[in-house]
Amino acid sequence: MTSTAEQVDRLSAWEAREARLHRVLPYVGLAVGALLTTAAPAPLGLPLAPHLLVAAIAACWIAWFVNLHPGWAARRTLMFVYYVGLLVLSAVLVLISPWYGFFSWAGFLHSLLLPGIWRFVGVALSAVLAATAQGGGMPASLSHLLLWCVLVLFNLGAAGAMVWFSSIAERQHANRKRLVDELAETNRRLAETMRENEGLHAQLLTQAREAGVTDERQRMAREIHDTLAQGLTGIITQLEAAGQARDRRTDWQRHVDTAIGLARESLSEARRSVQAVRPEALESARLPDALGELTRRWSAINEVRTEVSITGHAQPLHPEVEVTLLRAAQEALANVARHAAATRVGLTLSYMADVVTLDVRDDGIGFDPDARPAPRQPDGGYGLTAMRQRVTGVGGELTVESEPGGGTAVSASVPALPGGAG
Fold first, then answer.
1. 27 has pLDDT over 60
2. Based on CB atoms within 10 Å of each CB, which residue in 44, 241, 262, 286 is the most buried?
3. In angstroms, rounded to a whole number, what is the distance separating the alpha carbons of residues 59 and 198?
4. Is 68 exposed, middle or buried (0-12, 13-18, 19+ CB in 10 A)?
5. What average pLDDT does range 160-188 have in this prediction?
6. Domain with 335 in it: what CATH number?
7. How confident is the model at residue 422 (pLDDT cuts 50, 70, 90)?
8. Separation CA 268–CA 393 (nearest Å)
9. Are 327 and 367 contacting, i.e. CB atoms less than 8 angstroms apart?
10. Which of 308, 411, 292, 310 is nearest to 359 (CA)?
11. pTM of the full structure
C-alpha cells in the first residue's frame, strides 16, 4: 500500500507540474506569434493591427476559464464553451498570420479538458489549424493542398498519440487513486475491527475468568459434598450408633473406630480434592476393584447386603471418566444409606463398545423423582444435582427411576474414553 501511495503522490506531483505548463505554454505561444507577426508580417494582404486585439482577447479568454477558475475543469458544458472559443480565436489569429501557429498548439494541450471522444475531435480541429499555419495559410494550389494534407496527418498523428497516452495515464492515475482510497478505507475498517476485537477479547477474558471461577466453585462444591459432607454424615451416623450402644462395649468401640476411620479418610480426600488429585482409591487400583472395595466398606458400615457385578471387558478409562463413575457410586450408596432403608443393594458396571454404564439399584422405600426435595434432607437434593453435573460434564447421561415403595435405580452412562490408569 505504501509503494502505491508513493507512486500516486509522484504522479500527482507530475500532473500538477504538467497542469502549470498547460496554463503557461499558451501565453508563450501567443507572445511568440504576436512578436513575429509584428516584426515580420506575413504577405497575405490582411491587416496587421487587429491581431494584437485578438491576441489580447485570447489571453483573457484563457485566463478567465483556465487560470482564474481552475475548478471549472470538471464542468463539461463550460469546457465545451471554452474550447470552441479557443478554436475560433486560434483560427482568426492563424488567418491573420501563420506565425500564430505557435499558439494553435494550445488546442492540443487543452483538448484534455474535454471528455471522451471529444478530445480527439478537438485534436483533429487543432491539427487543421496547425497545418494551415505551418503551410503558410490556406491551400492555394494542388501541391500546396498535398503539403497541407501531409501536415494535417502529421499533426493529427503526433498530437493524437500524445492525447491517447495522456488519456491512458489519466485512467491509470484514477485507478491507482481509487485503489489507494479503497486500501485506506479497508485499513480504517481493519483498525476499527481490531479495536472491536480487542474489546471482545477483553470481554471474553473477563467471561472466561468468571466462568473459571464458577466452574471451580461448582467443582469444590461437588468435592466437598462427595468427601466432607458424606464423611461427616457417616461419622455422625456412627457416633449416634455408638451412643445407642453404650451398654455394649464391643459395638460401641466398633462404631467409634469406624467414625475415626471415616474422619481420617474424609480429611485425606478433602486434601486431595483441594489439590485436584484423583481419589486415593483410584491411585492404587482399577475402577472395578475400587468400586468393589467401596461397596464392601459401605456394606460393612451400614450393615446392608450388597452385590457387585462387572460385565464386558474391563479396560482402563480416562481418569476423569473413572473419577465420575466412582463419585456417582459413592453418592448413590450415600443416598441409599440416608434415605432408602434398603436391605439389599446391587451395583453393576457394564463395559460396552462405546459406553460404560454404572447401575445402582436398591429395594428401599423409593421416592418420587419429580417431587421437590424435602426440607429435612441434609443436602437439600444437591447430591443428585452434583452427580448429574459430573456425568454430563464428561458427555454422559444420568437417569433416576424410582417410585414410593418400589426401590430406586440410578444409572450413569458415560463415553468409554480410553487412557485411564491401569
1. yes
2. 262
3. 62
4. exposed
5. 72
6. 3.30.565.10
7. very low
8. 25
9. no
10. 411
11. 0.45
Distance CA 37, CA 52 (A): 9
Cα(8)–Cα(179) distance, integer angstroms = 10
Alpha-helix residue ranges (DSSP H) falling in 40-141: 50-62, 76-96, 101-104, 106-110, 118-134
* 410 within 8 A of 360, measured Cβ to Cβ: yes
Q: Is 292 within the bounds of a domain?
A: yes
User: What is the bridge-based pairing of β-strands 355-362 and 344-351?
Assistant: antiparallel
Residue 284 DSSP label: S
Nearest CA-CA partner of 298 in 248, 251, 344: 344
Name the domain count of the chain: 2
In sequence order, what are the residues at sequence separation of 6 or more whose Cβ sits closer than 8 angstroms to the Cβ of residue 272?
278, 279, 280
Sequence-distant (6+) residues with CB within 8 A of 246 are: 252
Q: Which residues contact 346 (CB under 8 A, 6 or more apart)?
A: 306, 307, 308, 309, 359, 360, 361, 362
Strands ordered across the beta sheet of 344-351: 305-311, 344-351, 355-362, 408-415, 397-402
CA distance 186 to 190: 6
Length of the chain: 422
Instruction: Determine contact, residues 136/145, Cβ cutoff 8 Å.
Output: no
- pLDDT tens sequence across 110-130: 777 778 788 778 777 877 787
* Whether 7 and 141 share a structural domain: yes
DSSP-assigned beta bridge partners for residue 363 = none
Domain that holds residue 49: 2-188
pLDDT at residue 1, as a whole number: 44
Query: Which one of 188, 211, 235 terminates a domain?
Result: 188
pLDDT of res. 351? 94
Give the model's pLDDT for residue 349: 94
Among the listed residues 396, 257, 236, 388, the one whose alpha carbon sits nearest the alpha carbon of residue 321:
396
| C-alpha cell read off for 391 | 456425568
